Amino acid sequence: MTATGLLLDGSWTKRADSSLHTVRSPFSGDALAEIVTASASDTDAALESAVAGAALLRNTPAPQRTAILLKAASIADERIASLAPTLTSQMG
């Protein structure tokens, strides 16, 4: 199990003040993954990035926003076979 870090402003990062959390199956108690828990400074950085992204998206034409959302949905559909076991294991 390797924690990849936090996705902040489009990049995977690991920060010194972040900590790790082990995700466990509620059914068996087995460790499923380690995730990075965001610190207060991580949260501030994520909010700053979100505000900047919202400003960009605000000026993006509706057809282009639609295309972005459809692409995201398509990627999720392509990955459903790998996402489903992960989600169900977390639910026990």
Characterize the structure shown:
- The chain is of the alpha+beta class and 92 residues long.
- A two-stranded antiparallel ribbon has the order 1-2.
- A hairpin with a 6-residue loop joins β3 and β4.
- The protein starts with 5 loop residues before the first strand and ends with a helix.
- 1% of the residues are buried.
- The model has no long low-confidence stretch (mean pLDDT 86).
List keywords for this structure.
92 residues, 4 strands, two-stranded antiparallel sheet, single chain, 52% helix, alpha+beta
How are the secondary structure elements laid out?
Layout: E1 6-8, E2 11-13, E3 19-24, E4 31-37, H1 40-58, H2 62-78, H3 80-91
Antiparallel strand pairs: 1-2, 3-4
Task: Tell me, briefly, the overall form.
Answer: flat
| Average of pLDDT | 86
The percentage of residues in β strands lies in 15-25%
Number of helices: 3
Distance between the first and last residues' Cα: 19 Å
Class computed from helices, strands and strand pairing: alpha+beta
* Helix content percent band: 40-55%
- Number of separate strands: 4
Strand order of the largest sheet: 1-2
Strand-and-helix sequence, N→C?
EEEEHHH
Oligomeric status of the shown chains?
single chain
Rg calc: 17 Å
| Major β-sheet profile | 2 strands, antiparallel
Detail the poorly predicted runs.
Answer: none
